[in-house]
Design goal:
Layout (H helix, E strand, L loop, with lengths): L30 H10 L3 E2 L5 E2 L5 H10 L23
Antiparallel strand pairs: 1-2
Length: 90
């Protein structure tokens, strides 16, 4: 019986560690094919190669929120900032 070494890729979520599978663990020949298939299944792969599965729990939502840019702030000369503490209302 020959013993062979096979190399393949799987996709794993950076948040929960789950693999891109329902019943059968899919094995991919290349990173690109693995990434393309994961994206088609609703996974997010960021530019820096973070992988986030489509689970919708607190940890996954927090990871997605971290990817968002900060809220823009607009300052206009002579206008008070909305987060300025004006003291108790009278
Ligand atoms: Zn996950």
């Amino acid at each position: 019986m020959p013993i062979r070494t096979l190399t393949f890729r799987i996709v794993t979520c950076d948040i929960c560690g789950d693999e891109d599978t329902d019943d059968v663990l899919p094995l991919y020949d290349t990173r690109q094919i693995a990434a393309d298939n994961a994206r088609q299944c609703g996974w997010l792969i960021t530019a820096d190669q973070r992988v986030i599965c489509p689970d919708d729990d607190r940890r996954h939502r927090a990871a997605l929120d971290d990817l968002m840019p900060p809220e823009p702030t607009t300052e206009v000369d002579g206008q008070l900032s909305l987060d300025l503490d004006l003291g108790p209302a009278t």
